[in-house]
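Treating backbone geometry as a discrete language has practical consequences that deserve illustration. No coordinates are needed to read the tokens, only the vocabulary itself. For completeness, the protein is quoted in full, as a sequence line and a line of structure tokens:
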Amino acid sequence: MGILNVSDGPTWSSDLDLPEDIPRDTPEAEFSVTFLALMILSGLTVTTNSLILATFYVEKKLRTYNNCYIFNMSVADLVVGLLCMPILSMIHLFGSWPFGKVASILFMGFQNSILGVSVCGVVVVCIDRYLATFYPIQHYQGRSIHKATVVNILTWVSSFGVWMMVTSAWDFIKPTNLVISSGLSRPNYSLTNTASLLVFLLRFGLPFLLMTGLYIRIYIKVKNIGSKHLSKYFNREGKNGKGQAKSASQDKEKRSLGTRLRDKLGSKTSLTYDENTTVSSISMDMTSDEGTTKNLGSPETDNEHSLNGEKKSTNNYPKPIGLSGDDEDISTSKSNVVSKKPKRESRVEGRKAMRTMTMIVLVFILTWLPTAVSVTMYALAPGFYRTLNKSINLSEITRWIAFSNSLVNPLAYAMAQPLFRLTITRMLCRPRRKP
């Protein structure tokens, strides 16, 4: 049924054991609304994934480490819409599988393998986000585009290696003449409930448990980190408030002291001070009517003025910013700090990756859950499953719902990352002008 090709019972093929001298009927194509709907679904899948892949070509900002895994999943989903969906739609056009037994066995292996690449892609995204959350420094220092490319290649090699062996190689080594209701060759692993459940666990059960477990741990970790940052923020704000209140009281005290001194010394007295001024270092310049200058306060200020009231240039005055050697050292240190590479990914990048993972995990669960229910029903209550399958064609419905994962994934990327939406809008609404 469904992706696992579990049928409602063994059905013997009508053309596998016929002698070669007996002519065989060639199925005739008969157009149907179902075939049209499935072809539209295939076209939408190809269009959406092609747009996602085009954004990587147009917008260089999307070519990040995290998006390399999105690129890999988009390629797999494009192949599903470009090959698997149209070929499978031919069953509804011709009324049965029209390409023979060998092609049926190879197609079943290819179909399961390419779907496995998509599932492996989701698992890889979850594992990568787990490492980035719990081991941020090691993950950031070790990640690279080359590493992501190698991981993507391994998802294809492992998926095709496993599923071509389980589906196609087993059927070629031990061939049977059984077919399912759609005309496809019935694989050997579907002949027993135990083997069907093991394949289903490999297809959906284990990935689902792994994704769910990792996501829950990541969510708890991120939530705890957010709570710590929030508490630190409020503590810092409280300390800043106390510091500002203390600074305001000191400033008020200085101003009141300066006012009292000015009242005692006369109206022509000018008082200068800054935030770091203390009572012992307050200096006042009193200019008399005769133009002489008197200095009160620290004795060091006596050398800063001449008898005729003109200031001398001394080394005690601060130099303008940018001219002194100390300022050059400060600017150099600042440039070094700016150019220093970060030790972990930014919060913006982390939130974006978390949103993307949330969307693709949610889409995976929603599109593969009907298949999970169907397989469980077949294993626990086969009689009820066969009755239900004959009435509403449950296996076909769950199969295409699982295929729709390849259509919804690009929508999830666009919802999680606004740059995908902006790039697609720019490509569609603002085409490049010819020179």
The first strand starts at residue 11 and ends at 12. The radius of gyration is 37 Å.
